[in-house]
Amino acid sequence: MSKVLVAGIGNVFFGDDGFGVEVAQRLAGTLPPDAKVEDYGIRAVHLAFELSQYEACIVADCMPRGGTPGTLYVVVPEIDGTRAKPPDAHGIDIASVLDTVQEISGTLPRIVIVGCEPETIEPGMQLSPSVAAAVPGAIALIRDLVDNQAWRTS
Prior knowledge:
Helix content is 34%, strand content 20%. The protein is an alpha/beta fold.
């Protein structure tokens, strides 16, 4: 079994929201054997069930935080015990996914999010130029995280 899951999430029909999917597609088949890459798109419940099988997970996702479009973020989500909304079959919210994992297995793997500031999440099937240019940097960050054992166990 793989120890690390790299989960690309997002909706490819809404411009830069497809960032995580693009990252996962480009990473597929290129990581060490103890890492699995998967494009989850908007399948929140599927991701929740899968997470209970891993020691650690790196999530690639569009992450609006008010920065310059294309800015990359590395975030460890805070789990405060507050119940998020239930997973939605038509979208994905990482907080609801993590709550569902806790309900299923009682524990969460280590989670790190590699996020990218979007330029647009309007309907459309292409990443904006600034977010497309950030994909190689996100791939490099994820490769470094996969190789770095310390974050998985601390």
